[in-house]
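Need tokens for this chain, all 150 residues.
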Amino acid sequence: MTGTKEYLPERVFSTHQQMFVRYFTAILIDLTVLNFFDEYWEHVKIESFTISLFTAVLLQVLLKLTIALEHRIENYFKNRTGIKAKIQRLLSIWAILFGSKLVIMEAVDFIFADEVVFGGPFHGLAAFIILVIVMLIAEYAIVKLCHSLA
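Here are the structure tokens for all 150 residues:
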């Protein structure tokens, strides 16, 4: 029909479908960032595309667990008042966010050994933290872009 606009019925996605798309997209973003770092920065070496895919999945799972733990600690301190509680909250969250990077980096090293290598300052920790920050920024940017299209 000319001159009329066809409307597609509004689709409703289940919670499981929404979570699948969210994590699938995040893994693809992480995979892209990992491979850019591997290709363009001498401090990140990944043996193959398959290893980078498995690394992206592992990083996504471990980063989501870290964020969940951070939120749990924040909720624990949420209703507490006073400077002592604020300092404890800040130190706890900082320890989780920083300490988790050490744990995640060790998990990657344990699982992938010489197939994934982070080099440079502080035995590769600086490169790993920069990589994770870029991954989180890229995920945030894609989410913002997606929301802006609505």
